[in-house]
Amino acid sequence: MDSDPSRLTEAEAAARLAELADLIARANTAYHREDAPEISDADYDALKRENAALEAAFPHLKRADSPSEQVGAAPAEGFGKVEHELPMLSLGNAFDEEDVTEFVRSVRRYLGLAEEESLTFTAEPKIDGLSLSLRYEKGELIHAATRGDGRTGENVTANARTIDDIPTTLTGAPDVLEVRGEVYMSHADFKALNERQDESGGKTFANPRNAAAGSLRQLDPEITRARPLRFFAYAWGVLSAPLAETQSGAIARLGDLGFQVNPLTKRCESLQEMLDHYAWIEQRRADLGYDIDGVVYKLDDLALQRRLGMRSTTPRWAIAHKFPAELAWTRLEAIDIQVGRTGALSPVARLTPVTVGGVVVSNATLHNEDYIAGRDAKGNPIRDGKDIRVGDLVQVYRAGDVIPKIADVDLSKRPGDAVPYVFPERCPECGSDAIREEGDAVRRCTGGLICPAQAVEKLKHFVSRAAFDIEGLGAKQVELFHTLGWIAEPADIFTLSARDAETKALRPPAERLAERLARRDEAADRAALLADLSGILSDMGHAPDGPEEAEVAAALDTLSRTPLSEIKGWGEKSAKNLFEAIDERRKIPLARVIFALGIRHVGEAAAGLLANHYGSWEAAETALTNAEVGQGPDWEDLIGVDGVGAVMAASVVTTFQQEAERASIDRLVAHLTIEAPQRRNTEGSPVAGKTLVFTGTLEKMTRAEAKARAEAMGAKVAGSVSAKTDLVIAGPGAGSKAKKAEELGIETIDEDGWLSLIGDA
User: Residues with Cβ < 8 Å from 4, sequence gap 6 or more?
Assistant: First the structure.
C-alpha cells in the first residue's frame, strides 16, 4: 500500500481504513484493558497518524468505527466505574519537526495570530505509564479512576491510596480539584520486581509500563501496596477555582500542593526552543531511569487554551512529539486470511515471535494481494518488486502499524521450496466468491448475510464501546452466541433472555453447520471449520464425541439447548447480570443507535452530527426513508449538515431504503426506547434552534471559533445553504452561498451584524 494518500484510489483508501480500524481496535483492548500490548506506543501512534492522513484526504470515507473518534478502551469487569465529569482525552501526535511546525501554525490560524505575535508553550517528557485521575474535595482524596474509554474509567481508589507519590489530603487546594497524571515504575524498581516475581514463581512483566498498569489494576490493594509505583502530575480536570493563569503556573501550583511534577518541564518562547528541548530530552532518555516516548507541547496561556478548545478526542492546544521507532528481522511462518464486517479479505502474516523495542510481536499486516506480490495498485514495484512468501526472512517495520507491516524481504535467505502466494478467490469463511472489483485494492466476500464472519463482525460492532456497550457481551460472547444460533442480528440480543428460558436456538445448529460446510469446496477447509467448532465446544464443556460433522452437530445441538447459566464459565449470577445489562440498553441515546447500525462511512462523530440534526429517531427515520440520493429537499437537508458529504449521505440513505437492512433495523427499534440528544440550556439565545451558514472570510474571529460559539448557543451550523437555512453570515469573498441565500430570500448579515446579534454570549 502506497504511504502517500494522494496516490491511492478511493477503493484503496477505503480498504486501508477498514484494515486500520480493526488493528487499532485490537491494540486499544490489548493496551488499555488487558495491560498486555502487542506493540509499542510509537507503532500505535504512527498508525493513528496514517489513519488521520487518509481521513483528511478522503473525508467521505470516514468509517463508523473510525479510530479518530476513540480514546482508550472500555473499563474491564471487576472494578466499579467512574464517569469522568470532563473527558480524559488523548493527544494528537507529531513525528518530525514539520509536524510540530504545522501544529504551531494551526494554533496561530485558529486564534488569528500573526507570525510576529508571541506564543509561549511548555515542553515536558511524555511518561510511558497508565493515566490516572484523582478527585479531591475540601482537600480529601475522594476517588481515583483510570482513563478507561475517556468517558468512563475504573475505580482504583483503594489502590491509588497505597502509592507514596499520591497525597491523600491537601492543604490550600481548591474545594474541588481533579488532578491528572501518569502512574509509572522506574527501571530499577521494575528489575527488582521481576526478580522477586521470578523467585516466587509469579508472573514477570515485559516492560515497566505493563508492570505499572498491572499493579495499579489489582483487585487486592495489598498487592498494589507491595509494588513500587510512582506518580507524576501534569494536568487537571474539574476545578472549583483556577490553579493559575498559565500551564506552567498551574503545574508549579500542583508541585506546591505536594504532587511530584516532572523537573524537565520547560517554558519555551519559540518553536526552535521547543525543538531544542525535545533534542535535549531525547539525548538524556536512556539515563532518566524511567520510560518516556516523546515530549508533549502545551500552549502556556490557559485563556488561549480555552479559546482553542477540543476536537472529538484531542485538544487543539497540545501535541505529543514522539521518538522514532525500530526495525527487526524474523521468519514468516504463515499467511492467514481474515474476513471483516464489510467482507474485505485481509491477509495477516504469522511471524516467528521477535522482540522489538521491548515488545514481542508475532503478527504483521500484509494489506492486500498487491502488497504481497510486491506491487502497488497501479502495478508499480514496491520493495524493489520483491514478493512475500511463506518461509521468507522478513524485516518488520514498527513505525507504521499497530500490527507492524513487512518492510523488506531478504532474498538471500529465501528457502528453496518457497512458492509465490496465491490469494484466495473464495471466502475462507463461507465459500462464496471473493470478488475484486475494478479499481478496488481489496477482494471482498459476496456472501453478505450468509457469511458468518461478516455477521459476527457486524454484531461485534453493535456491542462495541461507542455503540450499545452491553456489559458482559463482548467479542468472545458474540462469537459463541452466533455459533450456537442464539443471535443472528442485533434484534436477537433483546429476545435472548426469553429464548434462553425456553432453551431454543433461532435455527437448528446442525442445519446451519451443514450450510457452512456446503459452502467450503476443499476437504481441508471443511475439516478446519469442524476443528474450530470442536475447540469452542470443548472450552464450553461439551466436547464432541469425534471430529465428524454428525458428532460436532450433535454437540452443538446439545449446547444450544443448554441454558446460559449451565454453560461452563457462566453460572446463574453472570447470566442474570448479562440479561439485566441487555435490558438496561433498551433505553439508549439516538447517537449510539445510529453508530451501532454500522453504516459505512458513519463514525461516532458523524452519528452525533446526524442525531443532533434530526433530534429524534422518528424525524431521522422519516427523512431518510423519503430522501432521494442526489435530489430533493430531504437530500439537500442531509448534505447541508456540516461534516456530512455526498458519499456518507448516500450510504445512510441507501441503508434505510434497502429492504433487508431496513427490516433488520425495524426489528431492532421495536425493542428500544430511543432518547433524543440532550440540548444545552440556551434560554435567551437569539439563534437557538436556527440553522446558520458561515461563508466568506471572517476578520474578527476564526471560522472555527464562530462555529463553536453558534453551537454553544443552540444553533445548527450547516455547510451549505438550503430552504431550511435561517441565517447566513457572509464575510468578504462570499460567493455562491451568499448568492443562493439571496435567491431563496434567506436573511444575510455581515460579521459585525453577527457579533451584535450574539453580544457577550
Answer: none
